Amino acid sequence: MTKINGKRGASDILHSTIAFIFILLLFTFGMWYYIYQQKSGASVWEDYYAKQLTIVMNSARPGDIIVLDVHKATEIAQKASVSFESIFLISDQETCVRLSQGRKTCYSFFNRVDAEIELRTGVPGNVIEIKVLEEKE
Fold first, then answer.
1. Are residues 115 and 92 in the same domain?
2. By the number of CB atoms within 10 A of the CB, which of 3, 19, 82, 104 ranks highest?
C-alpha cells in the first residue's frame, strides 16, 4: 500500500495498540472473574464433598444409613444463596454437589444402588443422612 501524507506507520501503531489494550482487558477481566470465584473456596469444597459422597456410595449396601457432617458445605452454599435442597444430589449412579450459583461438581459411582438424602440442620452441626435403597436392576 502507498503512504498517504507519510502517516501509514502511525495508523498501524494505533491499531496494534488498541488490539493489545482490548486483549489485555479481556485477560484482566478473566483473571478477576476466576479469582472472585475462588475466593469462597466453593469449587474446592464442591470437589471434596462430591468425591467423598462417591467413595461412600461405592461402598454402600442396601439398608445402610450413612450420616455425614456437611456443616462447611451448608455455610458456603448459604453465602452463595443456594437453597439447601439443591446442595446434594444422588441419582442415576452419580453424586452432585452445588455450592455456588451456576455450577455443580458431579462424579459417577459404580455401585448399583439408589439413595434418599435428607439434610438436617441445627443438629450439633449440619448433617446429611443417606438411606441406601435396593440395588437397581
1. yes
2. 82
Ranges of residues in the chain with a pLDDT under 50 are: 1-2
Examine the domain organization and report whether 70 and 131 are in the same domain: yes
Q: Crossing angle for the helix pair 42-59 and 8-38, nearest 10 degrees?
A: 50
CA distance 11 to 28: 26
Give me the pLDDT at residue 49, please.
94
Listed residue (83, 80, 94, 92) closest to 45, CA to CA: 80
What grid cell was written down for 45? 469444597
Flag whether the pTM goes above 0.85: no
DSSP secondary structure, the chain, as one string: ---STT-HHHHHHHHHHHHHHHHHHHHHHHHHHHHHHHTT-HHHHHHHHHHHHHHHHHH--TT-EEEEE-HHHHHHHHHTT--GGGTEEEETTEEEEEEETTEEEEEE--S-EEEEEEEE-SSSS-EEEEEEEEEP-
Residue 35 belongs to what domain range?
A: 1-39
Same-domain pairing of 33 and 18? yes
